[in-house]
Design goal:
Length: 150
């Protein structure tokens, strides 16, 4: 198994490869994206309450919402990247006052990748391990973006 990289190592490696790009900063665009992402989050929360939800769909919806919020927050630094690990590393390093846990980001990213690329399903047990942290991080990101939009 490969050695786990620190956010600094990930960031430095992707900077060297030129994968971070300059992003347009448009407050109206961020507001629209935030509104849609929160609508998606409301829907994802409703999925959890179904009689027999697909935990894979619930997990992936929350992952996409979290990733989108990180992407929108990154726009305030006028930066963008399509690499999810690079996105999370950027958030950890540039918004350390949010006190996010790199290991959580790596856990959900690798679970998502195993699901998407190796066909490994997401169980209720896996969802139960990460659901509270998803909720806290999504709420924190939403508040941080709203503060920066003012």
């Amino acid at each position: 198994m490969p050695k786990e990289l620190t956010p600094e190592q990930v960031y430095d490696n992707l900077v060297t490869k030129g994968l971070y790009g300059e992003a347009n900063f448009d407050k109206d665009e961020i507001k629209k994206n935030l509104k849609m992402t929160i609508e998606d989050y409301t829907f994802a929360q409703q999925m959890c309450k179904q009689k027999q939800p697909s935990w894979r769909i619930v997990f992936n919806a929350h992952y996409d919402i979290l990733r989108e919020l990180c992407d929108q927050l990154m726009r305030f630094s006028k930066q963008k990247i399509s690499n999810h690990q690079g996105l999370f590393a950027f958030i950890i390093l540039n918004y350390n006052d949010l006190e996010f846990d790199w290991n959580f980001f790596e856990t959900i990213r690798t679970a998502r990748n195993r699901n998407k690329y190796e066909g490994k399903d997401i169980s209720k047990e896996m969802w139960d391990q990460v659901s509270l942290q998803f909720k806290v991080y999504i709420s924190t990101l939403k508040k941080e973006i709203e503060i920066r939009l003012k």
